[in-house]
Amino acid sequence: MLRRKPTRLELKLDDIEEFESVRKDLESCKKQREDVDVVGASDGEGAIGLSNDHKSREQMINDRIGYKPQPKPNNRSSQFGSFEF
User: Which residue in 16, 28, 41, 42 could disulfide with 46, CB within 3.0 to 4.6 Å?
Assistant: First the structure.
């Protein structure tokens, strides 16, 4: 591996302004989410509650990550292939 001198990074005024604008946007989005959570919690519609059963929670997680489980067949030909003796 070749060694080289470290690259010098310069902080520009445009970079600082862009960072500040992105930070303000994120803070405003976070504040809006918190406001919605507070209103939803007072209405009883907050985050996923404990009243939902385990399967529906598992299904929601699978849907969120895009996992679609395929049922496993229980016959021997599917487990071992189609062997002819």
Answer: 41
